[in-house]
């Protein structure tokens, strides 16, 4: 299995938001998510391309981590999710996401409390 530092993988995947969860890959079950005072809709899984195989510091191209993702997910190159901004929760005026904000995933429509 592929092994790299968290910083190296973060650079390779180029995620706009990195959310640390106790259980891996739970984002596949999310329908919506509240981050701090902002709600987002999950638009679907992120299709991964060969760019994640390029070390952003050295420019070196390898087969990993795409090979491992493919093996782990039965050939499907999907890892991560796309989000669309819905709006502030309960009419809040705060316009910024903040580091270490509380993250509340919503699995189904019944979880939405807007």
TrEMBL record:
The segment(s) forming the MOSC domain are 1-106
Give the matching InterPro entries: MoCF_Sase_C, Pyrv_Knase-like_insert_dom_sf
Domain of life the protein comes from: Eukaryota
- Tell me one Pfam family matched here: MOSC
Q: Which Gene Ontology terms cover its molecular function?
A: catalytic activity; molybdenum ion binding; pyridoxal phosphate binding
State the protein's name: Molybdenum cofactor sulfurase
